[in-house]
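Q: Could you write out the predicted structure for this multi-component system? I'm mainly interested in how the pieces pack against one another.
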Amino acid sequence: MPAGTLYRGREGMWSWVAHRVTGVLIFFFLFAHVLDTALVRVSPEAYDSVIATYKVWLVNLMEYGLVAAILFHALNGLRVVAVDFWAKGPKYQKQMLWTVVGIWVVLMGGAFYPVLQHTLRTWFGG
Amino acid sequence: MQIHQYDTVIVGAGGAGMRAAIESTQRSRTAVLTKLYPTRSHTGAAQGGMCAALANVEEDNWEWHTFDTVKGGDYLVDQDAAEIMCKEAIDAVLDLEKMGLPFSRTDQGRIDQRRFGGHSRNHGEAPVRRSCYAADRTGHMILQTLFQNCVKHGVEFFNEFYVLDLLINEGKTAGVVAYELATGEIHVFQAKAVVFASGGTGKMFKVTSNAHTLTGDGQAVALRRGLPLEDMEFFQFHPTGIWRMGILLTEGARGEGGILRNKDGERFMERYAPVMKDLASRDVCSRAIYSEIRAGRGCGPDGDHVYLDLTHLPPEQLDAKLPDITEFARTYLGIEPYTDPIPIQPTAHYAMGGIPTNVEGEVLSNNTDVVPGLYAAGEVACVSVHGANRLGTNSLLDINVFGRRAGIAAAAYADNHDFVELPENPGALVEALVEGLRESTGTESVAQIRKELQESMDTNVSVYRTGKTLQQAVEDVTALKERFKNVAIQDKGSRYNTDLLEAIELGNLLDLAEVLVVSALAREESRGGHYREDFPTRDDVKFMQHTMAYREVAEDGSTSIRLDYKPVVQTRYQPMERKY
Amino acid sequence: MSIETKDLVVPSLQAHTGQGLGTGNPAEAFVVEPARARTKKTPRRTRTNFEMLAWLFMRLSGVVLVVLVLGHLLINLMLDGGVSKISFAFVAGRWASPFWQMWDLLMLWLAMLHGSNGMRTVINDYAEKDATRLWLKGLLGVATVFTVVLGTLVIFTFDPNI
Amino acid sequence: MSTPTVEKHSAALDAVEAGSTKLINVTFRIRRFNPEEHPDPVWVDYQLEMDPKERVLDALNKIKWEQDGTLTYRRSCAHGICGSDAMRINGRNRLACKTLIKDVNPEKPITVEAIKGLAVLKDLIVDMDPFFQAYKDVMPFLITSGNEPTRERLQSQADRERFDDTTKCILCAACTSSCPVFWNDGQYFGPAAIVNAHRFIFDSRDEGAEQRLEVLNDREGVWRCRTTFNCSEACPRGIEVTKAIQEVKRALVTRRF
Ligand SMILES: Cc1cc2nc3c(=O)[nH]c(=O)nc-3n(C[C@H](O)[C@H](O)[C@H](O)COP(=O)(O)OP(=O)(O)OC[C@H]3O[C@@H](n4cnc5c(N)ncnc54)[C@H](O)[C@@H]3O)c2cc1C
Ligand code: HEM
Ligand code: SF4
Ligand code: F3S
Ligand code: FES
């Protein structure tokens, strides 16, 4: 069957898609994260060796992505709560979304060095 | 072919059909056959309101309302019927309110009322606020409310079933035959009582406020089965349709203070109707508009329209009272009604005539006899409460009052009578019609014939008519009917074959157009919506009577229209000259 | 979904003859049908407030999580040299304090419940067959309970001197 | 009173009256489906000359009347009040009769396809029964108790205003079939049903709000909405659908309405 065209939803739909994708992503990360943290019950060495992988640049970069996901999910989550409980929420949903995106960009900029400092330092020294 | 049995079958689920269904479902086993989903019916397009002398905002009574109705109809109204309608109007409105209709309210929380064309206090002294409304969505609210109540009462709908034939056996109603759009199957509905409520015929005109689906199926079916059609020459042209498109801008716009202006900005209605001005009845306003255009005072480069001016009204008032029509202007014309006047022209709007009935909704087979078990209500019917010109708001009233009456009467009839045996081979006529079109190898196109019909009707049978134009129309319609025999369709399938149905609908329009022009040609006078330039005055001596048109089939199979006349019922009001 | 859209674009006036496929009335056999259409029998009233409570929980937990999760991220990933500082010793130091124990415990519970309820919604949306849905939700439930129990045990039975 | 006031002609009005008849070439790419012929839907291109100020419905009519009579769609009023012709035009749900060609970028082929989430029966016609079933399931009629008053029930203008927005619904299904939740789960009540429940829940005359809220408290009820706002964007009547849904949600939480 030839596919229909993609529905051209607007801000509301795409922000929901992003919220869902980030939510699922975080969920799987959390699952893994609890498992790796559980290694502290096994032995300090086991834990530290797993944590060492977190310090590999690629994983470090993915951490930045995780922060991005969590930040977006959290901020947009607050927007959703506002849409639900504030009578004018639905009316200003778009403005709120752009505010969320704005804050997100600023915070991600701010988090760039702190999160990636490990990698940056191993690469460029410092 | 499937055969169904119901006590009562209602054809059409517009305002009249659903009002009838609510009553008859509670009293008898009822099926509603409708070619559209009920909420798609054109009742939903009605905007302005529904009149009833509630006297919620100022003094009023139903007797004044009756007078306005009779006068509005240029005395061709059956006054007993008008009296019933105006008296029952009050309960009709209150009933709707109790069913949940969200009327606009007064400060005291009562149903608000506003002015409307032709409605006056104390027999024409001044405009009165009589129209009950819900912003400019009154018809929408009525349709929704009635549908909601049909859901509540569990009315059985057969959606997208086109009724194409009426079964009469030995003079009594036996049922109807319908075509199911989804499958192409033919269904016979055997019924004790049948109510026709299938709406108007506006699509025979080009510029019209009517929906694509208003093709007069009910009238055409009745005509084909030998029943008369009453007063078909009276077709109302609403003064304010959007220029060239015909989309209606409610008279409520003028009720709220809107003004008609010509190219000089003059409020020309002052000259034609010194008292009621812009709120004169519709035929008067439409003629005035064309007079202005003919006198070279029309607007625009071609001088072929005038303006409806709302710019002096506060935007808040427009938003609250006329939100939809202002949006129409924005969407379809791209102009802002707060600041720009709206180009308008008269638009074909309402068929005063139709299947003749008495006040119980029983269909007449001639001037006096009824067809047992057959009823009609709404725009398809002619009771006649509208006479030669319907007053604004009186149609929504008509469908509620007479829809209800027909529903009750039909159920009562079904209760007291048995099924009439179906005629032999009941689906034959419809089968032949459908198969004939499907198998036709003709060369004519439905769209082309329809276009030519609409153009001829617009030029020849519009607000101004003369013997010559009508003669031309007769010739055109006859020629088109001949060509229609040679029509072919492209879609030969059975599922959702709208190509086929459009052809059948065109056939109906052609039949009705013929009745309309023949009736109009014979009426050598001017009355209400029928204005003959060659006979510019009303002739009460010769024509104070209803036209009854019959279709006669000659032995060689050719058909013609035979005209007869029926006296008007007059009770209180003697004909007077009509001034606004 | 596999056919290229382009290939099927046919010029007008061609394709539709209305003659059918010549197999009687094939119409019933093919319709573009969505999964799970509503029917007359659809409304199965649940008569509990479960969905509402779940909905409220999502919002409440979300708001609390903002503080917990963002705080957690701030401390673990950003302050004091970011991820490089994390080690067994760092964890041991944190969990020495009941405050951080409670913090992480609450975060674990809320995030897991929030997350798995969110996943439940996602499954409800995309799993079309009842059986699939049941399986996926079962799996989700097991994973959630396992994770929450494991995490809780770890936090409470943590022994810095292992 | 009869002083001229219509001197002030805006450019917009002048443009309308000049009646530009410059026709442009447009391609309509329509997703056709006729199971009597072929089990799969196909995209078909139609070339035609149109005035850009005409409606998409006019174009469909032109195609049907002049090129291909088998093209099938529903329509009636042609001015956006009957709700027959919701379809997906350039990827978004709209009424064909309320969409002017110039507003959907006629430079490129304009795609037209049936609305999503309801069974397609032929071309642009979908099965509306599940949609109306959801509508019926919210008990969309006034529920009252006690004796009927002789006159009308009183209702203040403010109380009337409370549910004005949701009385405008024409049951066109543009909202419900734009909802991502509904695409995947056709048992979800969908925005249109909730809008019509809202219309009664917040009607001061109605006494059935509790029952209706209970219906919408269902698994497939109002909690299914993920506030994606597609419904609000799609509604041709400009109803703030998502807002209405939120009001119903809040009414369920607080039991105040
Ligand atoms: C734009 C506009 C505005 C108006 N405004 C007002 C106003 O403000 N006040 C007022 O009083 N009046 C107004 N009117 C007039 C009034 O709305 C109509 O006359 C009235 O609604 C007609 O109702 P009805 O039930 O007879 O027909 P409709 O509502 O037209 O319904 C016809 C029904 O018949 C069915 N049907 C038709 N043919 C068949 C068939 N062959 N088989 C099965 N079913 C069939 C259709 O499916 C439909 O359900 C207005 C009219 C228009 C066009
Ligand atoms: C940081 C603060 C967080 C906030 C403010 C927040 C907020 C929300 C809200 C309000 C919803 C409901 C959305 C809706 O009903 O449409 C939601 C959904 C969801 N959340 Fe969170 N959340 C947060 C953290 C998390 C975490 C840590 C996880 C992972 C474990 C998570 C996973 C999910 C998932 C999977 C969904 C379902 C998405 C969907 O249904 O589309 N969230 N979140
Ligand atoms: S809410 Fe709007 S989009 Fe939805 S059915 Fe009603 S009118 Fe159509
Ligand atoms: S599109 Fe659907 S998810 Fe909610 S806001 Fe509208 S119902
Ligand atoms: S045709 Fe009536 S809404 Fe478009």
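A: Regarding packing and overall arrangement: Chain A touches chain C at residues 1-3, 20, 23-24, 26-27, 30-31, 34-35, 37-38, 40-41, 43-45, 47-48, 51, 54-55, 60, 63, 67, 70-71, 74, 77-78, 80-81, 84-85, 111, 114-118, 121 (CB under 8 Å).
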